[in-house]
Amino acid sequence: MTGPGWVIGYGTNGFADHTLPDALDVLEGSGYRAVALTLGHPHLDPFADDWREAAMALRDDLRRRGMRVVVETGARYLLDPWHKHRPTLVDIEAEKRMLFLRRAVEIAAVLGADCVSLWSGVLPGDVTAERGWTLLVERLAGLVPFAAAAGVRLAIEPEPGMLVETVDDALRLRTALGDPVNVGITVDLGHCVAVEPHGVVGALRAAGDLLLNVQVDDMMPGVHEHLELGTGQLDLAAAFATLSKIGYRGVAAVELPRHSFDAPRLARTSMEAIVSAASPEPHPWTAAAVDTVAADPGRARRLFAEAGRAVGREPVDPADTQGVGGTIDDVARAALVAALASSDAAGADLVATLYREGDDAERRGVLRGLNLLVDRDAELDPEWRRVGAELVADALRTNDPRLVAAAMGGFADAHLDDHAWRHGVLKLVFMGVPLSVVSGLERRRDTELSEMAARYAEERRAAGRSIPDDISLLVLA
After folding, report:
1. Per-10-residue mean pLDDT for the chain, 477 residues long?
2. Which residues pair with 117 in a beta bridge?
3. CA end-to-end span of the chain, whole Å?
4. Peptide bond into 87 cis (omega under 30)
5. Kind and range of the H or E element at 253?
6. How would DSSP label each residue in 336-394?
7. Quick one: CA torsion of 130, 135, 136, 139, rounded to 10 degrees?
8. pTM tops 0.70, yes or no
9. DSSP 8-state class, residue 400
10. What distance in Å separates the CA atoms of residue 306 and residue 284, rounded to the nearest whole number?
């Protein structure tokens, strides 16, 4: 999923019980378009003899998936099996850390990563703050030109309890380094709750155009513990609004390093939370039209026809060249459908008419509106479910990729039987539509769908044709 300028990712340190290919399959299937790669066990060993070949293979895989990458260097016991994170940049002896950071730069160069994210470290008992600062500046002063020569940017991450703890500390460090152009800042949104004096909005504004990397998690004030989104005190909507205002264009990756035991569920629920928080305020025309329809449903026909002219027809995600993720007028019409979803059957009949008499754009709006009703399913008149199922089935018989993509959302997940749902998924594969548009893919894919996908892949292979990358999301091991 892409926000207004930034790309949503997920950190591999939250998938420590998955192989890297399996983790990427889950993330791609959940709609993520970037990954924050923590170097080390179990995913990519930076000190393995074949590290370069492994990095090149990963680069090619990420390109096939259309996923961006940032390199993270926070592995706990990579350098010392007895002491977490040691040695750091503020330890007296730090050669292992320096070797690791140089290798991280080399890997980032191979991957074409957005940046290498790094932190200062916690001061050991035998190092004063003044001495630690001197060591930190001296060591980074050697790393910065090495990274610049490789075409790699470094992002300094403030960490609670470390020498560089806040964005102001990171800015001071950058100044001490001479304000190099290839050095910026990583901001962890949860850290802003825990220690930033001006909160998440103040921290992001202070970073400004130096912000190269964002980590997404929740926290409580004064406590450095990564929490599932919505379980702490982070104002996620305010954070994303601020990212938009400062023009951030990088990766915003979920970081839940102690939650690998529940990774697939958290990937799904985190994406849902992010989509909800990042959703912009409705267009003024849409807000007024929803109020109008709620008061007088009969005016929905005229407003449905006006939506494209009123709000525009651009893709919600500018990078979505196929338009399969929805357009701005899709969003407006979907809101009108949701406004018609009263407890009686009259609204369902009107929506059926809007679909059958509408053009393709209006039909997409109906389908996306049905997807908004899933959370209200128990309140709906049964006629809504019957009509909705008919309209989804009709859309799946078309050859319009945008209609089929809209039809395979939450309503299809909730109401299509397994046979129809499987065929909808495969139709998207045939059309070359990314399976990130499918709701419930990770949960509903089964052996029969896997076998259908494998047969299709074999037919393509036998005919000498290319095999869609998304097939890998369907074929079970």
Report:
1. 72 97 94 96 96 97 93 96 96 97 98 97 96 98 98 97 97 97 97 94 93 97 94 91 86 96 94 83 88 92 94 80 86 93 78 95 95 78 91 95 94 92 93 85 85 89 84 75
2. 72, 155
3. 26
4. yes
5. strand 251-254
6. HHHHH--SSSHHHHHHHHHHHHS-HHHHHHHHHHHHTTGGGGGGS-HHHHHHHHHHHHH
7. 160
8. no
9. -
10. 14
